[in-house]
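ASSEMBLY PREDICTION REQUEST
Request ID: AP-0331
Submitted by: J.K., bench scientist
Number of chains: two
Total residues: 620
Priority: normal
Notes: Please return the full assembly, not individual chains.
Input sequences:
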Amino acid sequence: MSSVDTVLAPGVDIATAPRYHGVLARQLRSELRLVFRRRRNVAMLIVLGAVPIFIGTAVKLATPRPGDGGPAFIGQLTNNGLFLAFTALTICLPVFLPLAVAVVCGDAIAGEANTGTLRYLLTVPVSRTRLLVVKGLGALAYMAAAIALVAVVGMLTGLALFGSHGVTLLSGDTIPFASGLGRAVGVAIFVFVDLLGLAALAFFLSTLTEVPIGAMAGTVALVIAFAVLDSVPQLGSFRGILLTHHWLDFGDLLRSSYSITSLAHSLLVPVAYTAIFGSAAWARLTSADITS
Amino acid sequence: MTAVVTAPDDGAVAQPAQFTSLAIKTVGLTRRFGNHVAVNGVDLEVPRGSVFGFLGPNGSGKTTTIRLLLGLMSPHAGSVEVLGGAIPARAAEVLTGVGTLVEGPAFHPYLSGRDNLRRLDAFDASTDPRTSNRRVALALDRVGLTAAARKNYRRYSLGMKQRLGIAAALLRPRELLILDEPTNGLDPQGTREVRTLIRELAADGTTVLVSSHLLAEIEQVATHVGIMSAGRLLRQGSLADVLQNANTQLRVETTQPDDALRVLGSLGLEVSEQGPGYLLAGMRELTADRVNAALVNAGVPVHGLRVERPALEDFFVQLTGEGFDVVR
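STATUS: Completed
Returned structure:
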């Protein structure tokens, strides 16, 4: 059309542009600031932190007699403060923690798409794989913080209310406080892997939509669906592949002898979910058209 | 390059020798949405150093083209090269040299303007983290947002949001700026500032692709234009060349319009408008002095003779149609 005699310029100097160290750390710091400064996320942490305090206070005020019903843990609470950490995690695992994971992970990509910031991040440019990694690590850091908060607040509240003598396990044996602490860390790790599967699922949903609330609600709906299906005995061994089926198996860690093999077996399902939906999220984000 | 782009008196100077290589080149670029072809065989050529006005009615495929240029979408056919690198294959290297404002600004509402820019800069692997704060402050200053730097983005007015979007594009030196509707929502002062900014950047050698509906704006800053309609690129080239091809008209002022009409008719010119004491006729390939000679030879008194190039806006409407309807 124009009379301009046009040739493409020879190689740009961009390839030789300086690269700075610690890029991932810098990106991650920015992401953590975004996640942990968001008021909604802080509010969820406050609620989660309040759960063990609430349970501990309630138990202290009305010490249950044996045979009163409720989870087996509750009876153990008064024996040792550490048990409050286990109890709090058990109570938070079915609903509160999945909700927090659904909100933060469901928002991860869909939230950026919704505000339109996704297109600006990608044109910075950031590779889509890198963005997924940074958003993923940010969300996992929040999840780890949420679990640690429940466990640590539970333990501190428990110690303050019930003392720190030897830990009596569900099997009746008593172990020293230090090894009790080790088991508490074990439980927290188990819960983290449980939720990792859910986080991957939420992440995948988050790459499918520009509406973060959709990804969040979808994740919560799936958790409920898993729980409902899991309660139908006719489904038999099929229930074994439900994400939530083995979630509470960490109770084994509170017996005198536990089998690492069987614990690892329980974690196979969440690990498989993590692999499948993590890959699906990657495949989707790296190929999708960004129209938001 | 034969045509010399004449500079408006306040400045967009374009040296003819300049535009010899391309900052953007697409070949047969095509993108469909279902049955609708949003971008249809577009061969866009944006010379380095140009201010390229990218024009077209709503829904003509401008923004989709821009998304394809930035690797946000993949084309169904054709190829894209930006700053010499193929998109999307080399997007991660090439786009560091490209500042963008696509479909309006977008930032995190609960972060301040400054924190939003810091976040974008933190994700940029090619910038020096030690200079981040300084560059953020400079970019804010350049768009006049220093006073509002600490304010939450959601409390910004539309014009302030737009300015922050431009600031983000200026966080580091760029070879190419792709600005989609940069003056959207700005007051007249803001519009003027953006125009000045584009001129300054162009003077530093930055190539600027700017899409806009404000054709008078474009006409003031652009050295080149491309006009899209219904997914096709109808015209592109230097502003002077494109308008040269436009329907240039000759205005003849005379006391004997009927005689003039006859003479013009004998020259094969079609008179489009006749009023008291004047005639308007399409120019074809004739020069004004030939027409003048013919008129004088025929004894028609010529009081005035003027060649009228249409404004960009008139030409734009000629090309893309008068209607208000979105072309699909």
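REVIEWER COMMENTS: Residues 1-15 of chain A have pLDDT under 50 and may be disordered.
SIGN-OFF: pending second reviewer
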